[in-house]
Design a protein that fits this description.
The chain has about 80 residues and is mostly helical. It has a domain of about 35 residues. It is about 50% helix and about 0% strand. It has three helices and no strands. The chain is rod-shaped. One of its GO terms (biological process) is regulation of DNA-templated transcription. InterPro entries: Ribbon_hlx_hlx (IPR010985).
């Protein structure tokens, strides 16, 4: 299918230069680029947890501990 697309002049020159260096067509480079964009945007993105931390919630003692040390501290004498 044929279509018309407006491309920034500087970008078009880069595409032409790359196509010439690699011995391929501009069409193939453009198709490859568009396929890559479609692949990258269709990948499942991991869920990003919102920051639910509470400022000042840690004691000065716990502020420099690892998670394991904090967990051990929270268990107290139950170990």
């Amino acid at each position: 299918m044929k279509t018309t697309v407006e491309i920034n002049d500087a970008l078009l020159e880069e595409i032409k230069d790359l196509a010439h260096r690699e011995g391929c067509s501009m069409k193939s480079l453009l198709e490859e680029g568009l396929h890559e964009v479609l692949r990258s945007r269709s990948r499942v993105r991991p869920y990003i947890w919102r920051d639910a931390s509470v400022p000042g919630a840690l004691t000065a003692e716990a502020a420099n501990m690892t998670w394991q040390e904090i967990l051990d501290l929270s268990r107290g004498d139950r170990l």
